[in-house]
Design a protein that fits this description.
Strand content: 15-25%
Radius of gyration: 19 Å
Shape: globular
Distance between the termini: 43 Å
Largest sheet: 5 strands, parallel
Strand order of the largest sheet: 3-2-1-4-5
């Protein structure tokens, strides 16, 4: 089965670099949209295209001849996605992949991720087909002090109760699956739910200890009410917002679509925890 053949990636930092690399492995010369001051290099045959996100003309020109736009822009870049979508529509782009790659955002009416939901509505109004890719937190980056995992000092500080399942997917695996789907089908699903693994906060602690014989982590579990008050007092605290979502059961992607690519074989949470000193 054949799929789309020309692509543009907006935001080639974190996840985006893996997406570009997967296209490169297939010999596809994806356009990588970069800001004028960027000097980042990309693997051949990727092509860096300088754009001004404040200029509709600049974006439209860059997207001419592109079948699919994939946005992997980070939190700070979400605001430019409507303009990117507008330009994609005018340039004749056939499909749009907005920057999701985390918790499900369908139907949100409040919170820090509601802008993603509004973008869905904008894409619907434009009549531009799109795919929302939900992955849960990235298993190759989440087990760090910013999320409460201080393995260097053998401590964790996580939200209670810690027993709700969470979907985890590594960035490389998410990129591989997305590129596979887009290059093998011109009718990808509207929602793509990827799950490399599913574990709770308590599970991750147990896995770390089981893969590090003799290590016993010092554990601090923040009461749910305390975390809720913290988010209420500072609605812009992105990490606390995400931790609250995950510990209240909102970190599961739903019924995974892994079966769409039986050979995917994603990495497991244990693979990353075992490799962490």
């Amino acid at each position: 089965m054949s799929g789309f053949t020309s692509f543009a990636v907006a935001g080639a930092g974190g996840l985006g670099q893996f997406v570009v690399e997967e296209f490169a492995k297939k010999g596809i010369a994806v356009k990588v949209l970069t800001r004028p001051d960027s000097s980042k290099a990309f693997p051949s045959p990727a092509q860096a295209v300088s754009v001004d996100y404040s200029s509709p003309e600049s974006l439209e020109s860059a997207l001419k001849g592109v079948d699919v736009v994939i946005s992997t822009l980070g939190f700070g870049g979400f605001a430019v996605q409507p303009a990117l979508a507008d330009a994609a529509k005018k340039a004749g782009v056939k499909h749009f992949v907005p920057s999701e790659f985390g918790n499900p955002t369908v139907g949100l009416t409040e919170g820090l991720l509601v802008g993603k939901t509004k973008l869905h509505e904008h894409l619907d109004k434009l009549g531009l087909p799109y795919t929302l890719t939900f992955t849960g937190p990235f298993s190759d980056t989440i087990f760090q002090p910013f999320a409460g995992y201080d393995f260097a000092n053998k401590k964790v500080s996580l939200p209670a109760p810690g027993d709700k399942p969470i979907s985890f997917t590594a960035r490389k695996d998410a990129a591989r699956f997305l590129v596979h789907i887009l290059t093998t089908s011109t009718s990808p699903p509207k929602i793509l739910r990827l799950e490399g693994d599913k574990q709770s906060f308590k599970d991750t602690v147990a896995i770390y200890e089981s893969t590090h014989p003799g290590v016993k982590l010092e554990q601090h579990w923040t009461p749910l009410e305390e975390l809720q008050e913290k988010v209420k007092a500072n609605p812009g605290d992105f990490i606390s917002y995400l931790l609250l979502q995950w510990t209240t059961g909102k970190g599961v992607v739903g019924e995974p679509d892994n079966k769409l690519w039986p050979d995917w074989a994603p990495a497991k949470v244990e693979d990353f925890l075992k490799a962490t000193p």
